[in-house]
Write a structure and sequence with these properties.
Chain lengths: 714, 714
């Protein structure tokens, strides 16, 4: 007998040394490594009671069983009868005692997706009840309960209720039908279209589990630069196979609609949204889609922007286009998300202003099932942007937030950049469009203007790399999108804390250090890339690395020089009344703050002002000195992250430790590249020296200007 | 204490249920599941003795420790002193006792890569010695030893020696610099060029381990449709990072050389191989490469074929081109692999004949460090081809075999096709170029003509999918390439047996069933795709699915109709003297057999003859009836594979079981598609009915002809 024990211990030990490759994301379900707590959990949780045979409830039960079995390191059985420690799942309709036990008001407040987790006494036993009006809520509750254990929280006296603040919580995949991903830095697309619908990859299930665990309830499978082919029957069958998997995790699929599809796949002569044949074609297409995918979510559309066709090709408005599609899906309860990211090739107008100019006049003209999807800032997912002036400017239209998780302008999948501070900075910005509270969060969640439809989307950073996001910390940005869409009031620190504990370890020294790194990381990137309000000075096309000198793009506003406007007198884009007057698109309270160089936050300074090189900053330094200081501080801070990380070697698995160590190494090199290239270039305008206290750039401006990256992902 | 045991058993059980995703390939190292054998192994293996601190010996020691620890389910320590059961690693130079113990002759016979595994008595202990003249041999020996345990073989009295028959055992990656893979069906490229050299993915190490375990000692990283950029300094630094990882696994890196590189990246006006400036450019480039990668292997070149530039652009021969590159790398002991896969756009000559016509006259003109790389058959990796007539026709030139692992013409990563029977069928073919033995294997391994340089390459089927090859059984084809290149005398059954036991389980019922499926699978595919010598009737461009009707390609020999030549009188390509006379390229003994319709193997019939529809086959059926029979048998056999597989559910993990079950489902559908489309199409020529005993095609020919796959991988 003793021999067997040794054998078993041996096997156990040597199975557990296997490296972690990041595939499991934040759903690792390792045995609780606090012995006291483990003992408690085992007493507090003895089994699962659930009368479920399919759908979301079955998914919840399976996840709970898998998760608890892992976390408790013992079998957690399904129970027909409750005992002390039973985790019980069910809706009030299934379990009539719940209404009495919990109260009708409480249940009403949960809506369709909310949940309740309560320690209660039932049939003389102490049980843990996870309930919700609909099965979806119970699924979310199960994940919440698992998170408590993953974070080693007490579960003795639970009384938790939660409902999502935002209705549509979506990923936008910019994935093409040939399995490439636009702005993808983590390998190819996870959608293996060639082998769908027959081959249902395990990744689809794990993708759905991960999304459900953070409350994401929809996914747009295809690129906004759209391909009409996806709307043809063989492809819809592929989509249906994914939808069938995602359905049990409360995730709806959406597709991008190519506006010219009636011409391209429908053999019509026009795609004019007011043409009856066109309208019928879309109606029929919608009917066909819903016959194949009964719970299809709807369409996301990029129209009349960057070469995409749209209603303006036929002298119609964005509202005409959106409403035609909205009418087609309305009978099936579908919705249309119409992107506000439009700017015209012909117009010489400041690109900052164009979306507002196009869309604000259309407020009130959209159908009830249309949302206008607005990027967080007016240009394009820069390291820092002021909030988009459309927020608050279209009170009759539900505006949906579009964030970019994939780090197109933030170091690809190579730089450690935690995006939550960027996201919440925008959410917390006050648009001043209402007297009593009109933050962007309040616009987005529908409360400011009383919209029941609301949404938040993140452009996915997911690819075929084993760890999903290329950079292990990219997972945190995916995680953030889900959690913030559920509850926009969560702080970056709260979200980081959750993610670190589940993804790595609960050990305090590790959690504290990594949380500090994450919270600082976005400002660090701003400093070494685009401090003081600089923006869009990345390499042309691929956006890899610095190229503030670039001026050869076929349109003015694709050139960095368009955005920074450096000359011998100073630097920055004058968007005050004496310049493009983009500031007029904000409410007076906002505009006044930004248009006055004395009150404009210095972090946004060059977004709005062309500032003399010797302008005195709050620090007492000149603008040029301050710029040098920011760039150098950015690099120094990356080195601080490297030192911090190097101390954490013994807390986690070697594989992920080394991955991040190596990536920080590249980030340091690229931060130096950014700093040197930008300062050497801007110096040609400022004519001032880089202060002697700093390390000298070890390459010339010419060296940096000649670098060339034809195969950078884009 | 008892409680802890329960805890431990619990943890163990619930850690071990984790699904297998295929990432570990045939190197799973699970605990031996035969209790008696496990007990024996534990007594027979007690530790590892190795005086090694780096390089290949360290890799061998690490692999042994990891593998044995897994297989024995206990720690296998490193030992300074030997005990009974020590596994001892070292060269005769390190361990002088070996020469006496083993004998000098035996050691000499091992060469540079061979190894010896012996149970010996040393210092009064029973130990297992793994030795070789060079560290590389010990690395291979270590993997052989691990394989014995993985296959649950006895290890009590070991006396194994092995040396590779072929010197260059290579993978050819058709991977592009933008991370796409030509003819790749398993996701994108595993080479993450964007993040190299700074980020060294764990996959690179596991790729090297897998290759070393089967004896592969070289890898061509880049596509034969080449990009000169890879030869520039920043990219060579990326290559060097891979080379540094692969070096310790005895794997050299090679690159494809774009012939026009001197013009494209060298600013020269010409790439004429006899131009002195061009020759100097390549010499300097080689010197640069070797300064960065001291053990660089050399170049693979596709020239003057399918649009690639080459020496003929300058009215020079393939020998002129190859020799120029050979001279450049010769001082560094580099080699050049020059592909014979050439066919001219202008020539109306039967494509079958063109490589032979171009290359045979050049025999004797190549430098000593040039190999000519010849595809197994004269056309292009078809399900079945006769052996390439160049084999045996260039006795003064080392000819290297090129197989295609990736299933361009064999169902992509969707069809279960074990390629070993295809590979060995060619190896075993007798070219009749020598009186006493001149099989293709003897040509390839250099014995027929006394070449010391020899090579075998496989076009890689590896991609970024978690399981590397898309289809779990694609791994078997990668495995086969390595094992056959080491020992071309291995049979498909032996290789399949090894692979199944290591990849899945040693359980007899499983091994027997799967081995049967694998051995039958290639002929099954031939039957439902291209029976009786049909070839190259796949979809245009992507080669997905059947398109025997296709006749719109810009060159004749890209059209299926060029190859099958069906008309009302019959079907097949007359390559006898009354036709293209390609048969004249074979030796008389071969030619005579093939040119006589009575002696031509029926499996090659339509390769060489245009055969009347009512030609009487050996079965007594007409050609048309036989063709029907083959196509229907192909589909039936896929269904047999499905039934066979369905019985194996309880033998392996659910994840891989389901993957294969689903893929067989698609294979069945696509086999029906092939059968119906081809028979309905050929029926338009034969004018005969499909015999009534068969299930009727449920679609029309028009339906199949209208199918269209613009996004199929290609």
């Amino acid at each position: 007998m003793k021999k067997w024990i040794v054998v078993i211990i041996g096997i156990m030990l040597f199975n557990s040394v296997s490296a972690e490759n990041g595939y499991d994301l934040w759903l690792r379900y390792k045995v609780t490594d606090n012995a006291v707590l483990l003992q408690q959990y085992r007493q507090q949780i003895t089994g699962i009671n659930c009368t479920c045979s399919d759908g979301k409830l079955l998914a919840a039960q399976q996840e709970l069983q898998q998760g608890l079995t892992g976390l408790l390191g013992k079998n957690v059985p399904l129970q027909k009868l409750v005992t002390n420690g039973t985790v019980m799942l069910g809706t009030p309709a299934q379990l009539p005692f719940i209404k009495k036990s919990v109260g009708e008001n409480t249940l009403t407040g949960l809506g369709d997706e909310g949940y309740l987790i309560r320690s209660i006494r039932h049939e003389g036993k102490n049980i843990i009840l996870i309930t919700g009006n609909k099965e979806a809520g119970i699924l979310y509750g199960a994940f919440h309960f698992l998170r408590l254990l993953q974070m080693q929280q007490p579960i003795a006296q639970l009384n938790i209720s939660s409902t999502p603040a935002i209705k549509l919580r979506l990923l936008n995949h910019w994935d093409n039908l040939n399995r490439t991903v636009e702005r993808g830095y983590a390998g190819g697309s996870i959608w293996d279209w060639q082998r769908l619908p027959g081959y249902r990859d395990q990744r689809y299930y794990d993708y759905a589990r991960a999304n459900a665990s953070i409350g994401i309830n929809g996914t747009v499978l295809t690129n906004v630069n759209a391909n009409a082919m996806i709307l043809t029957e063989p492809w819809l069958q592929k989509v249906a196979a994914l939808a069938a998997i995602f359905r049990q995790y409360n995730i709806k699929v959406y597709l991008t609609a190519r506006f010219s599809a009636p011409v391209e796949i429908g053999n019509l002569k026009t795609a004019d949204p007011l043409n009856e044949e066109v309208r019928k074609w879309w109606k029929d297409k919608a009917d066909e889609i819903y016959s194949i995918i009964p719970d299809f979510g709807g369409f996301l559309v990029k129209a009349n922007s960057e070469g995409q066709p749209g209603p303006q090709n036929y002298q119609r408005t964005h509202a005409d286009g959106a409403n035609m599609l909205a009418d087609a899906v309305a009978p099936h309860n579908g919705i249309v998300m119409w992107r506000a990211f439009v700017y015209s090739n012909e117009s010489p107008e400041d690109r900052f202003k164009q979306a507002y100019n196009e869309f604000k006049p259309l407020d009130g003209q959209f159908r009830k099932n249309v949302l206008v999807q607005v990027k967080n800032g007016p240009i394009d997912f820069q390291p820092r942007e002021p909030f988009h002036p459309l927020f608050g400017a279209m009170p009759q239209t539900p505006l949906m937030m579009e964030y970019q998780l994939t780090q197109e302008y933030m170091g690809f999948a190579t730089h450690l950049v935690y995006e939550a501070p960027l996201f919440t900075e925008v959410l917390n910005a006050d648009t001043h469009t209402k007297p009593n509270g009109s933050t962007v969060a309040q616009i987005i969640d529908g409360t400011a203007d009383g919209h029941s439809l609301s949404g938040m989307a993140g452009v996915s950073n997911i690819g075929s790399d084993i760890n999903w996001t290329g950079h292990p910390f990219g997972q945190a940005n995916w995680y953030t999108l889900g959690r913030l869409a559920w509850n926009p009031a969560l702080t970056p620190a709260q979200i980081a804390n959750e993610w670190i504990r589940q993804t790595f370890t609960n050990k305090k020294a590790f959690v504290d250090t990594v949380q500090q790194m994450m919270l600082a990381s976005r400002e660090i990137m701003v400093n070494y890339m685009t401090p003081l309000g600089l923006h869009h000075i990345m390499g042309y096309g691929h956006h890899y690395g610095p190229a503030p000198w670039y001026n050869k793009a076929p349109r003015a506003d694709w050139n960095p020089v368009y955005f920074h406007r450096a000359d011998s007198t100073g630097i920055g884009f004058n968007r005050t009344a004496s310049g493009s007057n983009a500031l007029a698109q904000y409410q007076p309270a906002v505009r006044r703050q930004y248009e006055n160089i004395a009150t404009c936050p210095e972090e946004l300074l060059l977004w709005f002002h062309h500032v003399p090189w010797d302008h005195k900053m709050k620090s007492g330094k000149t603008l040029w000195e301050e710029m040098c200081e920011k760039y150098y501080r950015g690099v120094d801070s990356v080195r601080w992250m490297q030192r911090s990380w190097s101390r954490l070697k013994n807390y986690i698995d070697e594989e992920r430790f080394k991955q991040i160590e190596q990536l920080l190494g590249i980030q340091e090199q690229e931060a130096v590249w950014w700093r040197n290239a930008c300062l050497l270039y801007f110096q040609t305008f400022s004519g001032k020296p880089i202060p002697a206290k700093y390390e000298k750039p070890d390459r010339t401006l010419e060296y940096y200007m000649e670098l060339n990256f034809p195969y950078a992902p884009h």
